[in-house]
């Protein structure tokens, strides 16, 4: 809470400065103020402008960039999920149970889980997640539930759980998986995609339950704290499983300090490589017939570049699964779903989400730009498309709205990519050189790792490098 208060004080100072800013001064052209380096950008930052804040001792500089220090540690009292899941791709059936232990940092008398398969887009394809029972794990007493909307499950605890105390419940569920659907939950051919398929705690530490409405367009609206997962998946003989975390000899997938889990099931041709301390696996379902080594080569180049630019990748694995009946890519922590024929830009974009969404979380319904604009910025620099995107025309209806919530973009879905991905990334890049922007983002990643960040947190990090980021980003609609 002290960290948030300090950030808020800093942003207040920035806003005060912005109020005195000469609004008649023309904004720098994104195309001219940012360069588009080669696919392997320099990792060493150049000298930056003086930090906007002062400390009692001089900042340690590394080649001119303030040293952000190591990544913040995940909350030692983070939730735990222990799930047993039975999957039968031929029958499109998924069922199981999950035990969830939660230690809130505020007093609560209920738990709120999000049932993301029931969001408008997957539900329209036929997906449905049904929680049949919820019980207190210790007493085994059944707990009353309510479902005010398809994606929100409220569990009445019948008592107050004080901050710092724990509560553990067990949920029993069944998932209906639709057929060939261009989404994260689908049964296509002899494969299955399972993304955000478990009930997820919708908690924002320091704030409480995050229950913004699910989006009605292809996009994300999730908010969840990092947690530890132990997921036992049973599949018929002959099927391969790729997913979040490491698979142990007991068949359980385990992941530490991740916001969600996802799994892809099929018959994969595999390519593997150790990259900068990370075991990278790319699987292409045999029905697709593409070479997994192509995507592996892209990742092997981009992953160390991203680590050098914005900070460490703190997990030991990263997997990608290409399955039929799907276009583009969808990011999940440590696991990405890709469609056949995915463009190179999609592969490196989804990898960038491991820093912006997976490591540094955000309320995706409220602030979709915090992950999509920043992931796009990493992507554009990586593939050398930043200068080109600087000339993209942003439609008038969405110009200056890059920081708007998903409720705005539901009415402008055809311009969502240009309005958030491109407009936001180009605005961030226009602050200065690539090295300077990367320097600021390293501060952001290190300080907000494993947390749910807000725009104020990002602006606080930008202010360590740039004198007036509030005024500079306001024309795009990006504000603290």
Q: In short, what is this structure?
A:
The chain has 480 residues and is an alpha+beta fold.
Question: How would you describe this protein?
Answer:
The protein has helices spanning 2-19, 30-33, 120-125, 292-310, 344-352, 369-383, 386-389, 406-409, 416-429, 434-448, 455-462, 469-473, and strands at 61-62, 65-66, 80-88, 93-102, 108-114, 128-136, 145-149, 152-161, 167-176, 185-188, 191-195, 200-201, 203-204, 208-209, 227-234, 240-243, 246-247, 252-258, 262-266, 268-275, 278-285, 317-322, 329-332, 335-338, 361-362, 452-453. The chain is built from 12 helices and 26 strands. The chain has a 7-stranded mixed β-sheet with strand order 6-9-4-3-15-18-17, with no helix packed on it. Strands 20-21-22-24-23 form a 5-stranded mixed β-sheet, with helices on one face. It has a 4-stranded antiparallel β-sheet with strand order 7-8-5-12, with no helix packed on it. Mean pLDDT is 89; it is low at 1-6 and 8-59. The longest helix is centred in the middle third of the chain and has 19 residues, at 292-310. By secondary structure, the protein is an alpha+beta fold.
How is the topology of this model organized?
Elements (H helix, E strand, L loop, with lengths): L1 H18 L10 H4 L27 E2 L2 E2 L13 E9 L4 E10 L5 E7 L5 H6 L2 E9 L8 E5 L2 E10 L5 E10 L8 E4 L2 E5 L4 E2 L1 E2 L3 E2 L17 E8 L5 E4 L2 E2 L4 E7 L3 E5 L1 E8 L2 E8 L6 H19 L6 E6 L6 E4 L2 E4 L5 H9 L8 E2 L6 H15 L2 H4 L16 H4 L6 H14 L4 H15 L3 E2 L1 H8 L6 H5 L7
Parallel strand pairs: 3-15, 21-22, 22-24, 25-26
Antiparallel strand pairs: 1-2, 3-4, 4-9, 5-8, 5-12, 6-9, 7-8, 10-11, 11-19, 13-14, 15-18, 16-19, 17-18, 20-21, 23-24
Helix pairs in contact: 1-11, 4-5, 5-6, 6-9, 10-11
């Amino acid at each position: 809470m002290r960290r948030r208060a300090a950030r808020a004080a800093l942003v207040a100072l920035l806003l005060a400065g912005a109020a005195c800013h000469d609004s008649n001064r023309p904004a720098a052209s994104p195309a001219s103020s940012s360069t588009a380096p080669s696919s392997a950008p320099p990792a060493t930052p150049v000298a930056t402008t003086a930090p906007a804040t002062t400390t009692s001792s001089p900042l340690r500089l590394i080649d001119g960039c303030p040293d952000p220090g190591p990544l913040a540690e995940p909350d030692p009292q983070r939730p735990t999920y222990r799930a047993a899941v039975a999957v039968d791709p031929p029958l499109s059936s998924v069922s199981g149970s999950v035990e969830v232990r939660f230690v809130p940092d505020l007093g609560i008398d209920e738990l709120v889980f999000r049932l993301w398969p029931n969001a408008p887009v997957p539900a329209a394809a036929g997906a449905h997640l049904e929680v049949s029972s919820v019980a207190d794990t210790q007493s085994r007493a059944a707990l009353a539930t309510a479902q005010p909307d398809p994606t929100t499950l409220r569990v009445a605890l019948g008592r107050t759980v004080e901050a710092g105390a724990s509560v553990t419940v067990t949920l029993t569920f069944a998932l209906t998986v639709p057929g060939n659907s261009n989404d994260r939950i689908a049964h296509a051919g002899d494969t299955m995609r399972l993304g955000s398929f478990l009930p997820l705690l919708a908690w924002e530490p320091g704030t409480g339950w995050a229950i913004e409405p699910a989006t009605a367009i292809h996009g994300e609206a999730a908010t969840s704290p990092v947690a530890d997962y132990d997921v036992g998946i049973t599949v018929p003989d002959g099927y391969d499983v790729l997913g979040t975390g490491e698979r142990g000899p007991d068949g359980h997938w385990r992941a530490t300090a991740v916001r969600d889990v996802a799994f892809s099931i099929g018959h994969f041709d595999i390519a593997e490589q150790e990259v900068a301390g990370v075991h990278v696996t790319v699987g292409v379902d045999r029905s697709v017939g593409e070479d997994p080594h192509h995507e592996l080569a892209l990742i092997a180049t981009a992953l160390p570049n991203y680590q050098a630019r914005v900070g460490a990748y703190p997990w030991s694995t990263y997997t990608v699964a290409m399955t039929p009946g799907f276009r583009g890519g969808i990011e999940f922590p440590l696991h990405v779903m890709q469609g056949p024929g995915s463009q190179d830009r999609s592969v490196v974009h989804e990898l960038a989400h491991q820093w912006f969404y997976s490591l540094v979380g955000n309320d995706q319904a409220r602030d979709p730009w915090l992950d999509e604009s920043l992931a796009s910025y990493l992507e554009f620099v990586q593939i050398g498309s930043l200068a080109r995107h600087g000339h993209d025309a942003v439609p008038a209806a969405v110009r200056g709205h890059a920081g708007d919530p998903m409720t705005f973009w539901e009415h402008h879905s055809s311009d969502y990519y240009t309005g958030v991905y491109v407009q936001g990334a180009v605005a961030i890049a226009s602050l200065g050189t690539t090295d300077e922007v990367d320097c600021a983002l390293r501060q952001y990643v290190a300080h907000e790792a494993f947390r749910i960040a807000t725009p104020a947190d990002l602006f606080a990090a930008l202010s360590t490098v740039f004198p007036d980021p509030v005024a500079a980003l306001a024309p795009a609609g990006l504000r603290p």
